């Protein structure tokens, strides 16, 4: 990540006014992007930064964001009168209305944390591109969505905007697929809250989750929406292949997505006695409790910009089984058990091996994972993000920003 000397940090000594484009955010619908944005901004506003924020919201997220951020006097809200559930409408409003609204404020820069940004704006721009998944797994999107996404991300290069991403792997992907210069890409890794390591009282979790945890059978856990690249159908097949005397059932947390048909077909082939429980719309405490009580967390994903569920499971003290694909080994390092996703039988074999690990080996992995996860914090993410903002503004003040 680029660094700047104290002599260069002119803008760190004045209040920055940052506009934030939240038009992409539909609460509960955008997955890790929501966690990334909410936690980063919360840490920025809770830190000792000279920062004023203008949040550009829409009808689907205005009340949600006000419930979190209206307590901060340095935050101003500007609501655009449309619903982002129509992606076409969101892109159009982002392109023609957002620049007009942003021009009404004395912004030092506009931050768009959801991949896309206005082609034209009256101030410097920073765009968060969390991964290049659409280039590797285009089946996760419609053809139109893929083309629009590619056009808008390529436009970042043309406009010479700056980019924030969340792993060194994602930075390499951005440099591979775009003409953005390396010095314009900042890496701000994600993090996990301390609450994931704290025991959750039974009284604080839902009856649905309490029923799962209190059953006599232990369970395997997977947290993932059913996009094709998440590889959930392969997990269900591996679960089917486990010996009949294994007492575990499988708990899947996540929403149906474009790979749902393959997942349903795999579930339909489950033999008698193999149980899959599907849960969605859980509160944070429910999710944490499920992490903490699982015998094994399995994350079979083929592509991740970061892989936040892996970090969450490690912080919760749960053994992780995952792949070495994309950014995942960058996050988990030697704190997880890995399987080869290109060898279909290996997942079932590694599930059995992980469950049969000697107590000392298992405890050692779990403890290393816990310490590894503690090394990531939203405070650090916020600090790196603020450094990016200052660095971008300094470049402009020094006449280097076109």
Read across the widest sheet, the strand sequence of neighbours is: 3-2-1-4-5-6-7
Query: What value does the Rg take, in angstroms?
Result: 22 Å
Q: Give the topology string: H per helix, E per strand.
A: EHEHEHEEHHEHEHEHEHEHEHEHEHHH
Structural class label: alpha/beta
User: Termini separation (Å)?
Assistant: 21 Å
The residue-averaged pLDDT reads 92
- CATH topology heading of the largest domain: Rossmann fold
Strand content is 5-15%
Q: What's the CATH superfamily of the largest domain, by name?
A: Glycogen Phosphorylase B
Q: What would the principal axes of the Cα set say about the shape?
A: globular
Q: What is the number of helices?
A: 15
Total beta strands? 13
What is the share of helical residues? 40-55%
Give a short overview.
This protein has 15 helices and 13 strands. With 402 residues, the protein is an alpha/beta fold.
Could you characterize the architecture of this molecule?
The protein is α/β, with parallel strands linked by helices. It has 2 domains: 11-191 and 378-393, 3-Layer(aba) Sandwich (Rossmann fold), CATH 3.40.50.2000; 194-374, Glycogen Phosphorylase B (Rossmann fold), CATH 3.40.50.2000. It has 15 helices and 13 strands. The chain has helices spanning 32-46, 62-69, 87-102, 133-136, 143-159, 168-177, 207-214, 232-241, 260-268, 284-293, 308-315, 328-332, 344-355, 359-374, 378-397; strands spanning 16-21, 51-58, 75-80, 109-112, 124-128, 162-165, 185-187, 219-223, 249-253, 276-279, 296-299, 320-322, 337-338. It has a 7-stranded parallel sheet with strand order 3-2-1-4-5-6-7. A 6-stranded parallel sheet has the order 10-9-8-11-12-13, with helices on both faces. Helix 7 (207-214) runs parallel beside helix 10 and helix 11 packs across helix 14. It is globular, with a radius of gyration of 22 Å. The two termini are 21 Å apart. Residues 1-13 and 397-402 have low confidence and may be disordered.
């Amino acid at each position: 990540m680029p660094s700047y000397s104290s002599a260069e940090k002119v803008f760190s000594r004045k209040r920055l006014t940052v506009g934030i484009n939240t038009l992409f955010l539909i609460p509960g619908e955008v997955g890790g992007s929501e966690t990334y944005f909410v936690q980063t901004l919360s840490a920025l506003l809770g830190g000792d930064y000279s920062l004023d924020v203008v949040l550009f919201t829409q009808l689907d997220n205005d009340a949600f964001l006000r419930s979190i951020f209206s307590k901060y006097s340095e935050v101003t809200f500007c609501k655009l009168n449309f619903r982002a559930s129509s992606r076409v409408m969101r892109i159009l409003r982002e392109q023609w209305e957002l620049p007009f609204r942003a021009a009404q404020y004395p912004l030092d820069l506009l931050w768009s944390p959801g991949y896309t940004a206005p082609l034209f704006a009256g101030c410097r721009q920073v765009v968060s591109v969390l991964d290049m998944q659409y280039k590797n797994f285009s089946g996760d999107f419609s053809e139109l969505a893929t083309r629009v996404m590619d056009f808008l991300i390529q436009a970042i290069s043309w406009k010479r905007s700056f980019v924030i991403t969340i792993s060194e792997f994602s930075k390499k992907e951005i440099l591979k697929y775009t003409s953005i210069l390396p010095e314009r890409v900042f890496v701000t890794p994600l993090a996990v809250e301390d609450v994931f390591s704290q025991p959750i009282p039974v009284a604080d979790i839902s009856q649905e989750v309490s029923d799962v945890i209190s059953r006599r059978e232990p369970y395997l856990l997977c947290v993932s929406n059913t996009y094709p690249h998440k590889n959930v159908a392969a997990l269900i097949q591996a679960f089917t292949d486990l010996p009949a005397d294994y007492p575990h059932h499988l708990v899947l947390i996540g929403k149906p997505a474009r790979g749902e048909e393959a997942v349903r077909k795999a579930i339909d082939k489950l033999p008698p006695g193999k149980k899959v429980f599907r849960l969605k719309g859980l509160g944070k405490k429910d999710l944490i409790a499920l992490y903490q009580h699982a015998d094994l967390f399995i994350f079979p994903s083929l592509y991740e910009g970061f892989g936040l569920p892996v970090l969450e499971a490690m912080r919760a003290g749960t053994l992780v089984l995952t792949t070495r694909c994309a950014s995942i080994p960058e996050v988990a390092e030697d704190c997880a058990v890995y399987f080869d996703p290109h060898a279909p039988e290996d997942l079932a074999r590694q599930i059995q091996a992980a469950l049969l690990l000697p107590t000392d080996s298992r405890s050692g992995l779990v403890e290393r994972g816990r310490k590894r996860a503690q090394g990531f914090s939203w405070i650090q993410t916020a600090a790196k993000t603020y450094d990016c903002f200052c660095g971008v503004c300094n470049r402009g003040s020094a006449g280097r920003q076109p």
